[in-house]
Structure formats: C-alpha cells, structure tokens
Amino acid sequence: MVEEILGTDLPVAFEAYDGSRCGPADAPATIVLRSPVALQRILTAPGELGFGRAYVAGDLDVEGDIWAALSLRDRMPSVSLAPRQWLTMLRLVGAAGLRRPTPPPEEIHLHGRRHSKSRDAAAISHHYDVSNDFYALVLGSTMTYSCAVWAHPAVTLDEAQEAKYELISRKLDLQPGMRLLDIGCGWGGMVMHAARHHGVTAVGVTLSQKQAELAEKRIAEAGLGDVVEIRVQDYRDVDDGPYDAISSIGMFEHVGLSQVQEYFDRVHTLLRPHGRFLNHAIGRPPFDRPRFARTGFIDRYVFPDGELHEVGTIVSAIQEAGFEVRHLENLREHYALTLRAWVANLEADWDEAVRLAGLAKARIWRLYMAGSAVNFEVGSTQIHQVLATRSEDGVSGMPLRPTFQ
Questions:
Q1: Which of 39-48, 262-271, 289-298 has the highest mean pLDDT?
Q2: Per the domain annotation, does 398 fall within a domain?
Q3: How many CB atoms neighbour CB 151 within 10 A?
Q4: Which end of the chain has the least Cβ crowding within 10 Å, N or C?
Q5: Rounded to an integer, what distance in angstroms lies between the CA atom of residue 174 and that of residue 311?
Q6: Cβ(357)–Cβ(376) below 8 Å
Q7: CA-to-CA distance for 388 and 278, rounded, in angstroms?
C-alpha cells in the first residue's frame, strides 16, 4: 500500500503494526505505524496535521535519522489516492476508521479575539512556558531561542549565538550610557550582552512569566541587576521612552498582520530621533502563503496564532510608521544550522528531555525543529534582520559606510 502511494524507490522503510514491512533493509530511518489509529489520523486530517497528530500521540514513530524521514515531504504534495487505494485503506481501518480520533491533548485551541492582549499572552505561555530546564537542554548555555550567526559551521552554538548578539549590537551602534529596549527578550540574552559588552542600560519585556523569572536570576548572577531590568509586559503597554535603540529578536512572528502597523507605530514612538531599530524575524517567500496555516501542525502544536509575512510588506510597514530602512539581511542558512544544532542537543539527551517536558512535547519539538531546518535549507522559509532609523529633517544618524558587517 505504501509503495503504491509513494513509489517503490523509498528512501526510508515502513513497518506496520501487523508485522508487514517495505523499503530498503538498510534504510537510515523507519516509519513505524504502531496501530490502525495512525491511519485513521492520516485519513481524517490529510497532510502534515494528520501525520503530526499520529506522531505526537505515539501512534506513529520515527526510528533512526529524522532528516531522512523528512525527505518524504518532497513526495507528499503529489500524493493522491485512487479509488482502489481508498478501498484498501478502508479495509485496513474499517468503516469506523473514517471517524476522526480525538486529537492529542497537547493540541491547543485559543479563545478570544485573535491578537488581543489576553490571547497573545495565552499563545506565548503555550510555547515558552514549557520548562526552562528543557529549553536549557535544547538551546545551550546562552538560552537563546532565535537564529544564531555562524562564521563557519564548525563553531559552537554558543559562539554563534554570541556572534548574533554582537552583530545586532553593532548594527544598533550601541555605546556606553545608551538606553536599549529589547521587545520579546526571552531569557535575557540580548540585554545581558549589550550591558556587559557595550555599557548600556537595558529593559527587556516578555509575556512569559517563566522566561522573566529565569532572566532575572541570570542577570543577578551576572552582576547586571543595576543596569538591566526585565518586565512581564506587552509591547503595547511600554510607555517609558525615549530609548536610544530598540531590538526585537524572534518576537515579531507573534504580532499578527492586523497589528503590524500598531506595532511599528509603537516602536517609532518609543525611539528617540536618530535612534536605530532592528527587527529580526522569520518571513516567507513572496509566492508562499501569508502565515502559518491555521489548520497546520505548527499552529496547532507549536506557535498558535503565529504569522509569517513577506519581507517587502514588512519593510513598507516599517517605513509607513516613519522609519527609514537602511539595511536588510537574510540569514536563512544560519537558521538551518541553528535548528540542526538544537535538534542534535535534543536527541543527544532525549531521555532527560522527556523527563523534563514529557514525551509528547519532546516529540513536538523534535518534529517542528527538524522540519523548520529543512524549510530554511530549501528557501521556503526565510529570516531577515531589518535595520531602520528614526530619521529627522533628513538626518539618519548613520555613517556613510557602516562597519557592522
């Protein structure tokens, strides 16, 4: 049945609950269907959501190389079942198999107005309040949950993350005595780097209580408590500008198209004249859909209400808010390397990850990070750093030839 649908030259093996098997004997990965419920999930939610539900629930397993297993995605868009194949599937699962099984409890359905403050807070909590110890296992000692900048694939993940913070600091031209706002500060990596290496005072805001608690602890241990402040606060409630520089690293995906202009207007209000703003965000190619599919695996299990936008749309929105865009950089290959490093960390300490977050969450993060790495590698997902200034009277505050690259 599998060979009828996906072809006979399978890159991985398949093993079913009835003992049947197909595919190469020396396959680098094996897709294991542990029960007929796996087929029910795939039949009743075709595409990535059905496969994702089966994997999260444990009805389907991926044994071996997750990257080899993901190579099947190239075949899935063209898959369609002929009538005789539908009949074969129906015989396998029975008429009851056409009833949709209850989704795994980890699947989230948010309530309230999309991108209201309360719903945004719930979305952030779902994703980031998993376990600080779990994130430490995956992300490494910098606790940085965004694209690193790799001078070479052989450097360490921590070195690449510090290089990212230093690149952003140079783009913002951070100088001693400046005041920095970091919107979506995570566990405090950017504000700590900026204070330690560039002598700024910094404020970081996040909607995650667990992030804020650990960020404050890390800041105190680093002896930076007198120059760095962490707040559990929505960016729409920040009102203590002006700031000399503003960064937003890996947060913009949560803003939503309906709030984009309000977001950039707010940042513009908080930034002093001639100050710099850097927006570091995942985006999509112009030919792709404008956001995470609301019925897709990512929206249901990973980033509820997350939205990706084409970079030209974002540049226009930034400039409509009164900024002047001065530099744009696409770092998609860097994010692929970052995600592969995170997957390697997760798989290297799998039993501990399961203990910290539970088996279902560990499966979700493995699948989403590996799949995302492949998306960045093939160019179906991008990530951009957009640098803008609050120019006044034709004065940008930028040198003729910036030296941050």
A1: 262-271
A2: no
A3: 9
A4: C
A5: 25
A6: no
A7: 6
Kindly state whether residue 394 falls inside one of the protein's structural domains.
no
Rg (C-alpha) for the chain, rounded Å, is 23
Can you tell me the mean pLDDT for 159-175?
Answer: 98
Mean pLDDT of 85-106: 71
Most confident of 29-43, 200-214, 280-294: 200-214
Question: Which amino acid is it at 345?
Answer: N
Name the DSSP class of 52. Answer: H
Please report where in the chains the tokens 């129906």 appear, as a residue. Answer: 90
- Rounded to whole angstroms, the Cα distance separating 69 from 13 reads 9
d(CA 267, CA 248): 10
Return the exposure string of 167-195: e unless at least 16 CB atoms fall within 10 Å of the residue's CB, then b. Answer: bbbebbbbeeebbbbbbbbbbbbbbbbbb
Let me know the angle formed at the C-alpha of 49 by 330 and 5, rounded to the nearest 5 degrees: 100
Positive or negative: CA dihedral 358, 140, 52, 4: negative
pLDDT of residue 291: 47
Q: What is the pLDDT of residues 232-282, one digit of tens each?
A: 999 999 999 999 999 999 999 989 888 999 999 999 999 999 999 999 999
How many domains does the chain fold into?
Answer: 2
- The helix (run of H) or strand (run of E) holding residue 220 is helix 209-221
The answer on 324 and 187 residing in a single domain is: yes
pLDDT of residue 345: 98
Q: In DSSP terms, which residues pair with 204 in a beta bridge?
A: 182, 230
Question: Is 402 inside a domain boundary?
Answer: no
**Phi, then psi, of 82 in degrees rounded to 5:** -75, 160
Would you place residue 219 in the very low, low, confident or very high pLDDT band (cuts 50, 70, 90)? Answer: very high
Are residues 141 and 57 part of one domain? no
Same structural domain, 155 and 91: no
CATH number, domain containing residue 84: 3.30.1050
CB-side exposure of 59: number of CA atoms within 13 Å? 18
**Contact predicate 276/172, CB 8 Å:** yes
Whether 77 and 150 map to the same domain: the answer is no
Q: Which two tokens stand for residue 375?
A: 């998306």
Average pLDDT, the chain: 89
The first and second tokens of residue 132, run together, are: 């600080």
Write out the residue range of the structural domain in which residue 172 sits: 117-389
CATH of the domain at 179: 3.40.50.150
How buried is residue 203: exposed, middle or buried, by Cβ count under 10 Å (0-12/13-18/19+)? buried
pLDDT at 7: 53
In a domain, 76, yes or no: yes
